[in-house]
Specification:
The complex is a heterodimer of chains A (218) and B (807).
Chain A: H1 2-20, H2 24-37, E1 44-45, H3 46-50, H4 61-68, E2 84-85, H5 87-94, H6 106-124, E3 131-132, H7 134-144, H8 149-172, E4 184-185, H9 186-192, H10 198-201, H11 211-216
Antiparallel strand pairs in A: 1-2, 3-4
Helix pairs in contact in A: 4-6, 7-8
Chain B: H1 2-13, H2 16-31, H3 37-41, H4 43-66, H5 86-111, H6 115-118, H7 121-139, H8 149-166, H9 170-175, H10 177-204, H11 215-226, H12 230-240, H13 244-274, H14 279-311, H15 321-338, H16 343-361, H17 364-395, H18 402-430, H19 437-445, H20 451-459, H21 468-497, H22 509-529, H23 534-553, H24 563-581, H25 588-591, H26 598-601, H27 608-613, H28 620-639, H29 656-663, H30 665-678, H31 692-701, H32 703-712, E1 720-722, E2 731-733, H33 734-743, H34 748-759, H35 769-780, H36 784-791, H37 795-802
Antiparallel strand pairs in B: 1-2
Helix pairs in contact in B: 1-7, 2-5, 2-7, 5-7, 5-17, 7-17, 8-16, 8-17, 10-11, 10-13, 10-18, 11-13, 11-20, 12-13, 12-21, 13-14, 13-16, 14-15, 14-16, 15-16, 15-17, 18-19, 18-21, 20-21, 22-23, 22-24, 28-32, 28-33, 28-36, 31-32, 33-35
Chain lengths: 218, 807
């Protein structure tokens, strides 16, 4: 019984590894963490993620948690949110943070870049309409500065406005006073963050070792 | 001979300026003796001269005294109307001449078209040094030992390293610290032992006449020659604009290998005297390395924190702020050198530690001063170093040994390539962003040697090392080889290999937002993954920094400011300066970089009532009038820049005041809200401005609207421009000035008084709305005096400006 189950999970893991690009060890580690977070349930809820104490100080806490329950990030072409996610979805979201492989072609690099930027874009684009409006951008910056106290809240708006102006002026060039810039589309987003080497920067080191046991030793 | 040829052939193509320079050099030579610059730089010799002279006089008197006061009266000579006393000024005069020569040379290179794009400056400077040295030799003088080790390590090197440390891009440096350390420590060790060991082996071969060279001197030589030189690397890499990663790898290595070089140098120097090396010595060497490097960093960090702490209290004496940066850093360097710790690492640590805090504390002007002084000093030092390297080449006694020199050059190249390739193989296992073959090539090829190696070789004791001159010759050859051959070919090679170059684009606010965003995002993801990686610890460190350190080291409220806001303020501030500099408000709109206004991105939600409620009370002429008054005020503040005061820099309100202006944003916003409620726009039925950015944006796109809003609304958001600091009495309230200007139009004398008050930096009272209106009304009146100062301030105005400001 146990043997067949482990064989089944192994098969599942292999399948997941093929789809997400993680190694089997990494998947094993993440699975452990998943069960730890979900308290050995099959699914993970928002409360489970919100209970991580280390996240408390993160200004993006809400946005990060939302990203895990956003269907757009689950590599399915759907829009909307889900209430609970399984391990597979968890892994899908995590796979956005995999480092780039060493030898990749220019096309693959571009694809990776788009994927990673799409993830960030989706975090800003809260109403999933494909553009980041000024309101959304302001909210994003406000969240980013939410730990900075009152100064942050006052400046956030100004910063978001300045950033939006910048986007508009770099992507549109000259605009007439009566023209209206609706918001940042994904293409614009790609364009303004051209110099940010996101494909090499947006990654987390997924350990191959078993971190759970390591931390137990502490 | 070769020097002579070199002297003649390029002189034909040389510019007039350089010919003049050469003439100048000859003049110096003819006029006096070009004494040793080593002597010139160290005042003790001059002091000796003085005391010598003094003693002489005393002797003279003593003799006279012993004669029994027989002939005490001196015969009266004619009063010397003009006398020449070159020795009196010789030392500083010659220093100045060298610096002048260096600077003029640097200037000259950039005047010659296309030359600087082909040949790196460092090569040209060395050639100039060779020429100067050759000239001195031609005239028959003794070539001064210009690149004296003391001069080099105490005067020339620190500015360059401080410049590098202060402006060290911390982020990429810390992100690659593992790789850099690997190259700097293991790589340098490998190079030293590989070169030293193999050289010794070569020396043992029969027929090279080098059998007298022992192992330890060879290893010492290896450790001197193996270190990549920061000066040379900086000089070459700044010109090729390589991407940030490669730049920081090579440059970081050149900075951090100093500790290894220092330890190896002292170790081998010590053992060369003692002879035997025991395993105990090796252990001691490792401990020594740790102490030298960590001690250097600790010394630097302590001084850095001290500097940051001092800068907390400088708000009342802004003029000496930059000095603290320099003096504390130099003290750090000297303190480290005192204990034979790594002075370079101390300087780097000092600069890097103090920078964020000092920058938050000191005024913008002081920051600019620091920046310019560092750049100026480092660039002059660098120029002098390369020139001196050339001069020293001509000067030094050489003993050329073909085998030794060629083997050195080859071994250096080989060991560098093997070292880099081998180390990258290991490093790549741990790196996420792998180093490609191209990267490895550039890192290996960029390993330039420079003046540090020469100075270390120069320091060697002739008695202990009979082969010193041969070593020096080999070191110079290696330096020349790397600087000329590698330095000149690296640029074409970078182009050929299509190595990624640095993007020159300035940092945009969107990038900054997303850099911060990514940091937090990745920290969050790491936390969810449950393993504490880099981001987690970085976040912890940042929070600690924010919570405790910044509070102690940064004055006022600014310590609370997150990085993003600080960045935004900086950017905003730059724009403000551009705005002011782009023509004093007259040509405001055209000079703005942004071509999109806030109206374009603002959600269209303005109620039509707002547009209708706009109150067209003022006639076109009145508007024009108000606008002009405001502009004249803009001009006025610009003119005040010219004023001079020894103790305080007369602050430009648009610079220093801007920060405080930003801090008072809340008030601005409140006022703007109030303004929105009033909603009495004149011309443009724009959306209600709800953020300062928007206001500025509108100012950019349509200054008229801005002015109109400002001028006409009741709760006028004053353009409050405080100088220096909030508490300081130097503050100017522009609108207040405006109102006063208006109020005092009728009484010119009173106006002058008011202006003088301002110039003396008296506190302006906060403007009241009533006064404001009065000012407007007054401004509405056509006043020739006022009109005059719009475009061209009248003579009386100028007189005012020229008046001394302190009573």
């Amino acid at each position: 019984m146990g043997a067949s189950q482990s064989a089944r999970t192994e098969h599942e893991f292999q399948d997941l590894a093929d789809r997400t690009g993680f190694s089997l060890e990494q998947i094993g580690n993440l699975n452990k963490r998943f069960r730890q977070l979900s308290k050995n349930e099959q699914t993970l809820s928002r409360q489970d993620l919100a209970s991580i104490s280390a996240l408390d100080n993160n200004p993006l806490r809400a946005q990060i948690i939302n990203a895990f329950f956003d269907k757009r990030n689950l590599r399915q072409n759907e829009v909307g949110t889900v209430q609970v996610i399984g391990f597979e979805e968890f892994l899908m979201v995590m796979s956005h943070f995999r480092p780039a492989a060493m030898h990749i072609t220019e096309e693959e690099r571009e694809k990776l870049r788009r994927e990673k930027l799409r993830f960030v874009f989706n975090m800003h684009d809260t109403d999933s309409d494909g553009t980041i409006t000024l309101e959304e951008y302001r909210r994003a910056v406000e969240e980013l500065l939410s730990k900075a106290g009152t100064i942050g809240q006052e400046t956030a708006k100004a910063i978001a406005d300045a950033a939006m102006l910048e986007v508009a002026s770099t992507t549109r060039g000259k605009m007439e006073p009566d023209e209206f810039y609706e918001g940042i589309t994904f293409e614009n987003f790609l364009q303004i963050l051209k110099t940010l080497d996101i494909e090499t920067r947006m990654h987390v080191r997924f350990l191959n070792m078993d971190t759970a046991t390591m931390r137990c030793g502490k | 001979m070769s020097v002579r040829v070199a002297l003649h052939s390029p002189s034909g193509s040389r510019s007039f300026l350089e010919r003049g320079l050469l003439l100048l050099v000859i003049l110096i030579l003819l006029e006096g003796t070009v004494l040793t610059l080593g002597a010139a730089s160290s005042p003790d010799i001059g002091a000796q001269d003085n005391t010598g002279g003094h003693d002489h006089r005393d002797d003279h008197r003593g003799i006279e005294g012993s004669r029994g006061n027989t002939n005490y009266t001196y015969t009266k000579k004619a009063f010397p109307v003009l006398s020449l006393d070159y020795h009196h000024i010789q030392v500083p005069f010659e220093i100045s001449l060298w610096v002048l020569l260096a600077s003029l040379m640097k200037l000259g290179f950039h005047l010659i078209p296309r030359l600087s794009s082909i040949v790196p400056e460092s090569c040209l400077l060395i050639v100039v040094g060779l020429l100067v040295g050759g000239l001195i030799k031609l005239v028959g003088e003794e070539v001064p030992p210009v690149l004296d080790s003391k001069l080099f390590f105490l005067c020339l090197l620190p500015p360059i390293i401080l410049d590098a440390g202060y402006f060290l891009p911390i982020r990429p440096f810390m992100e690659n610290i593992g790789t850099i350390l690997m190259f700097a420590v293991v790589g340098t060790l490998w190079n030293a032992f590989f070169v030293g060991g193999l050289l010794y082996a070569v020396c043992q071969i029969e027929g090279t006449y080098l059998s007298q060279v022992e192992l330890l001197p060879c290893l010492l030589f290896g450790s001197i020659i193996s270190a990549v030189d920061p000066v040379a690397v900086l000089a070459v890499f700044e010109e090729i604009h390589i991407n940030e990663l490669l730049h920081i790898l090579v440059f970081g290595e050149s900075l951090l290998n100093d500790a290894v070089t220092v330890v190896l140098y002292h170790l081998f120097e010590e053992y060369s005297g003692a002879g035997e090396v025991t395993p105990m010595d090796v252990v001691l060497g490792v401990i020594c390395f740790l102490i030298v490097s960590l001690g250097g960093i600790a010394v630097g960090a302590i001084y850095g924190i001290l500097a940051a702490f001092t800068s907390r209290f400088t708000s009342h004496t802004r003029v000496i702020e930059p000095l603290f940066v320099f003096v504390y850093s130099y003290m750090a360097y000297l303190s480290a050198e005192m204990f034979h710790l790594s002075g370079i690492m101390a300087l780097i640590a000092c600069g890097a530690v103090m920078r964020p805090y000092v920058e938050a504390n000191i005024s913008h002007k002081s920051h600019t001063t620091v920046k310019y002084f560092l750049k100026m000093w480092s660039s002059v030092s660098e120029t002098l170093i390369f020139i001196f390297l050339g001069v020293a080449t001509v000067a030094g006694p050489h003993s050329w040994n073909w085998t030794f020199v060629s083997v050195t050059v080859i071994l250096c190249l080989v060991s560098r390539v093997i070292g880099v390739v081998g180390l990258t193989f290991i490093i790549n296992k741990f790196r996420i962003v792998k180093l490609t073959t191209k990267d490895q090539f550039i890192v290996a090829y960029g390993g330039l040697r420079g003046a540090i190696a020469f100075s270390l070789g120069y320091l060697l004791d002739k008695d202990l090392f009979p082969t010193k001159t041969m070593f020096l010759t080999a070191i110079i050859t290696e330096i020349f080889f790397t600087v000329f051959v590698q330095g000149m070919t690296i640029k074409p090679l970078v182009d050929l290999l299509a190595v990624k170059k640095k993007q020159e684009a300035k940092r945009s606010i969107n990038e900054e937002i997303h850099t911060q965003f990514l940091d937090h995002l990745l920290t969050g993801i790491e936390d969810i993954c449950g393993h504490y990686g880099h981001h987690h610890w970085k976040d912890k460190l940042n929070r600690f920094n924010k919570k405790y350190i910044k509070k102690c080291l940064i004055a006022g409220e600014r310590y609370k400011e997150p990085q993003l806001i600080a960045f935004y303020h900086k950017m905003e501030f730059k724009q403000a300066i551009e705005l002011v500099e782009s023509g004093g408000g007259v040509k405001l709109p055209s000079a703005m970089p942004s071509q999109v206004s806030m109206q374009n991105i603002q959600p269209k939600k303005l109620p039509p009532a707002v547009a209708e409620r706009a109150l067209p009370q003022f006639t076109k002429g009145r508007e024009e009038e108000i606008r002009k008054i405001l502009r004249s005020n803009l001009q006025k503040t610009r003119q005040r820049l010219r004023s001079y005061n020894r103790h305080t820099l007369m602050a430009d309100p648009f610079e220093d005041g801007w920060n405080d202006f930003l801090l008072k944003k809340q008030r601005m916003i409140e006022l703007e809200k109030k303004m929105t409620e009033m909603s009495n726009y004149l011309t443009v039925p724009a959306a209600p401005p709800d953020s300062p950015t928007m206001c500025r944006a509108r100012l950019a796109s349509d200054p008229n609207a801005f002015y109109n809003i400002k001028a006409s609304s009741d709760g006028v958001p004053t353009i409050q421009v405080d100088l220096a600091s909030p508490q300081s009495p130097d503050s100017v309230n522009m609108l207040n000035e405006f109102s006063k200007r208006g109020a005092t139009d009728q009484d010119l004398g009173q106006r002058e008084g008011a202006d003088r008050d301002e110039d003396q930096g008296l506190m302006m009272k906060p403007s009241s709305a009533g006064k404001e209106e009065k000012g407007e009304e007054e401004g509405g009146n056509k006043n020739p005096g006022l009109m005059r100062c719009l475009s061209d301030p009248g003579p009386s105005n100028e007189d005012e400006e020229d008046e001394p400001f302190l009573p």
